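Tokens in:
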């Protein structure tokens, strides 16, 4: 039976090592030493360094994803309000992740981009079915008029995740705001909502 404490120690070890070194320069042996266990013991929990990193990504976004899943059943709340709440939770998690790596020994730009790409891919993949369900509920309630809920969910996720993360395509605050306003305008027109009715999404 796997020991949850040791599993957590392995993730904590990699997270600490990432504050000072690029992931490609971190070995499984280093992670094992930082977790105070043998390399063989570590392989009992994870088959590779990549698997440890993927588990770390999942842990970092566990809270916002749980929030998203809970909101999917809140049909008493507007679908757009639920979307805003989900993205705010994800934005907070991204900010916490960036703050942990904001040190003098932090990773290079390519390394940062690689790690953030992993985070964004995971986030978009996991949130798409949840957001699709919320949009379907909005369509059923007559609040949203759109024929392709899954496509709409993916478009919104990609634009907001990339712009709000602001790492893969760095932008000045004004540029980010303009993009968000453009997305809101498209959402209003595409879902047949009145102009400026979704401006509260700017708060995310």
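Residues out:
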């Amino acid at each position: 039976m796997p020991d949850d404490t040791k599993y957590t120690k392995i993730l904590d070890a990699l997270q600490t090592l990432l504050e000072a070194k690029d992931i490609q320069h971190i070995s499984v042996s280093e992670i094992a030493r930082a977790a105070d266990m043998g390399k063989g013991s570590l392989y009992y929990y994870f088959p590779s360094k990549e698997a440890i990193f993927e588990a770390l990504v999942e842990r970092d976004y566990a809270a916002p994803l749980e929030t998203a899943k809970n909101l999917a059943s809140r049909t008493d709340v507007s679908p757009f309000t639920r979307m805003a709440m989900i993205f705010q939770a994800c934005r907070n998690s991204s900010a916490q992740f960036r703050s942990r790596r904001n040190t003098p020994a932090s990773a290079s730009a390519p390394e940062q981009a690689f790690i953030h790409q992993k985070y964004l891919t995971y986030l978009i993949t996991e949130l798409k079915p949840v957001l699709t369900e919320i949009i379907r509920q909005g369509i059923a309630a007559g609040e949203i008029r759109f024929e392709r809920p899954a496509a709409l969910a993916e478009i919104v996720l990609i634009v907001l995740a990339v712009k709000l993360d602001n790492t893969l395509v760095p932008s000045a605050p004004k540029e980010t705001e303009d993009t968000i306003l453009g997305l809101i305008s498209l959402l209003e027109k595409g879902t047949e909502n009145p102009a400026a009715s979704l401006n509260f999404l700017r708060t995310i």
